[in-house]
Amino acid sequence: MSEAPAAWRAAALAPPRAHGGPAGRARLKASAEDFAVAERLGFGADGGAAHLLLTVAKRGRDTLAVARELARLAGCAPREVGFAGLKDRLAVATQYFTVPAPRPPRPLAGLEGEGFRVLAAEAHSRKLRRGALAGNAFVIWLRELEAPPARLAERLGQVAAAGVPNYFGPQRFGRDGANLEAVARFAAGAGLPRQREARAFVLSAARGLLFNALLARRVADGSWQRLLPGELVNLAGRNSWFAAGTIDAELEARLARRDLNPTGPLAGRGPSPADAAGALEAEVLAGFGPLPAALEGAGLEAARRPLRLWPEDFRAEVEHGTLRLEFRLPPGAYATAVVRELVETPDTPLEPEDA
Description:
Blueprint: H1 6-13, E1 25-28, E2 35-40, E3 51-59, H2 63-74, E4 82-83, E5 92-100, E6 112-113, E7 116-124, E8 135-146, H3 149-162, E9 164-165, H4 178-187, H5 196-220, E10 232-235, E11 241-243, H6 249-256, E12 260-261, E13 263-266, H7 275-286, H8 291-297, E14 303-306, E15 308-309, E16 312-319, E17 322-329, H9 335-342
Parallel strand pairs: 2-5
Antiparallel strand pairs: 1-8, 2-8, 3-5, 3-7, 4-5, 6-7, 8-17, 9-15, 10-11, 10-12, 13-14, 16-17
Helix pairs in contact: 1-5, 4-5, 5-7
């Protein structure tokens, strides 16, 4: 049985911070109520007859478990339930699901199950797809705060001004990094699980590992906020990118305005950066042996992820030994990437990603 090398675990679970050591320590997720997240769809129900768009409040339940319960309530197969993103189990979350419109019609708003309640059910034409989000809004309470006030204030300013590395959080890699063991077996040729969700967890952990490793390298050498020659450049706020050859003054100005971002790999079949950016990325990925090729062989199409992340509408308050944070993030970004640049949270339970 293959074990994940220590270097893999370090890249996935303990990559370098961008702004130096943490400004203090605190307790994250002392209770589910200390981590509140609300999805922002960017659109509303369209009145179509085929589905219902459900607004669901959940606490202490993972998204997949709630989806199975909603399928039972709606009288459909679990695979017919749509949702845009996975949300932490140890949290209070408001998120959206779709179910096929029940036949005969029956009310779903107000129905409850273990750890969730359907707040609203509105007519909608399409199944909700993964990633169909404008972003997520967070309110986080960090308890038992131990941090020099001046140092914490300085770090809060650094995060607001310079952003943070857009790492995948530890949730991506399973409880105590257990998904990395499955990734190591996959890289060694053991194949993928047959069950769809288990297969997806292995593939997403593998891609997250390679991305974190590349970003960790660029944080270490200071290039995570710079464009390198040959960079595949992200257009901020859009899931698109272009190849940059020479980095000219216009690109530098757009980078400074946050219109553009350097990117790292979501490995699969497709284009890679060239020149200095490509050489650096190839060097990092070569350290993972057959894993990048295995992801190509699994049929994944390559994509890119921005290296930089800014918390929008970032607010912080300290009162009675608690740091309260409020901010918004784009889809796919992790609140833990913001928190770890501020304080160390050593007692936080390492949950798997919504499992």
